[in-house]
Design brief:
Layout lengths: L10 H7 L8 H5 L4 E3 L1 E9 L15 E8 L15 E8 L4 E3 L5 E3 L6 E7 L8 E5 L7 H5 L4 E7 L3 E8 L2 E8 L8 E8 L2 E5 L4 E4 L4 E5 L1 E5 L3 E8 L2 E3 L5 E6 L2 E6 L4 E3 L4 E11 L2 E9 L12
Parallel strand pairs: 2-10, 11-22
Antiparallel strand pairs: 1-6, 3-4, 3-7, 4-5, 7-9, 8-13, 9-10, 11-17, 12-15, 12-19, 13-14, 16-17, 18-21, 19-20, 22-23
Length: 304
């Protein structure tokens, strides 16, 4: 953490606070009796409903990076590349709250500063206000799927306890494969020719897809019943165009490629739902296209 000495009204306080920087140890922080750590807690839900493809709650070991700007003494709440009030301090979720991994962000107990916080999930070391984020190409494992998510929040407050409620910035493709006793078959689903990478701007709280395209993204099987297997993958906001993107369904080792029936715009916090039917035709098992949402819909968050 780096507290700007320009906020101080006297040289004495300046000398006291120079210990509160990225090189300060906890013993040094404890020598500042007027300062206390800021605590970050989750709201319920901690990530807004219908905004996060990976659900509306944090999971244990999820990690956030938190920046802070002294809005008054800096003359702006805009996040700079370096030398902010706090730069990308890591906080890990332990099941109930966020625990700082290192020196916590500090505040004055009695006369707290007006700070603007920028929280970003997942934590990435070395990021600046503009950075590149990329979802995993293989999201078949749950951990890879959830860490392909991107959520952010910007909040200005003097509170010593800050409630976090992040906004989801990626998009979601949901594929349902339906058929009698489908759970007895081996099924895998992939989406082809989609963008996974985005340029992220913390100041504007926006994410824009890059021109990079991944040949194939493996989806996670997240829900299964006797007659339905549901898959999903997180992708960058983008336009899926007819003839360019496709869904690959592999049933018992045999792959079938389905082109999209139309073009669809995936914005941040939207989900495209596709349905495929597996039926028996003259003794052969075939897959037929079953339907699609007319427009991308808000992501329906799973309550954990």
């Amino acid at each position: 953490m780096n507290i700007k000495t320009s906020i101080l009204s006297s040289a004495l306080f300046g000398l006291l606070l120079t210990a509160c920087n990225e090189q300060a140890d906890m013993q040094g922080l404890e020598q500042l009796p007027d300062m206390v750590p800021v605590t970050f807690c989750r709201m319920v839900p901690s990530i807004e409903l219908q905004t996060r493809a990976a659900g509306n709650q944090f999971e244990t070991e999820d990690a956030l990076g938190i920046f802070a700007v002294d809005s008054i003494n800096s003359g702006s709440s805009r996040l700079m590349a370096t030398d902010n009030y706090a730069d990308n301090v890591r906080y890990d979720f332990d099941g109930s709250g966020f625990v700082c991994q290192g020196n916590p962000i500090m505040q004055f107990r009695d006369t707290p500063l007006l700070l603007t916080y920028y929280a970003v999930y997942p934590y990435q070391a070395g990021i600046t206000p503009t950075f590149r984020f990329e979802a995993a190409a293989d999201q078949s494992a749950h951990s890879s799927y959830t860490r392909s998510d991107l959520a952010m929040q910007k909040i200005t407050t003097t509170n010593l306890q800050v409630e976090l409620q992040l906004q989801h910035l990626m998009s979601n493709v949901d594929v349902a494969v339906c058929g009698t006793d489908i759970n007895t078959h081996s099924v895998q689903v992939a989406v082809t020719n989609v963008a996974l990478a985005t340029w992220v701007n913390l100041n504007s709280q926006q994410a824009v897809a890059t021109n990079d395209v991944t040949s194939q993204v493996q989806c996670e099987l997240y829900e299964q019943t006797v007659n339905e297997s549901k898959f999903h993958a997180i992708v960058a906001p983008q336009t899926l165009t007819q003839g360019n993107q496709a869904v690959v369904i592999t049933l018992d080792g045999v792959s079938t490629v389905f082109d999209l029936p139309a073009s669809y715009q995936l914005r941040s916090n939207t989900q495209l739902s596709l349905v495929f039917d597996v039926i028996e035709d003259d003794g052969d098992i075939v897959i037929r296209y079953g339907g699609v949402e007319e427009e991308p819909q808000p992501v329906h968050a799973r309550c954990q």
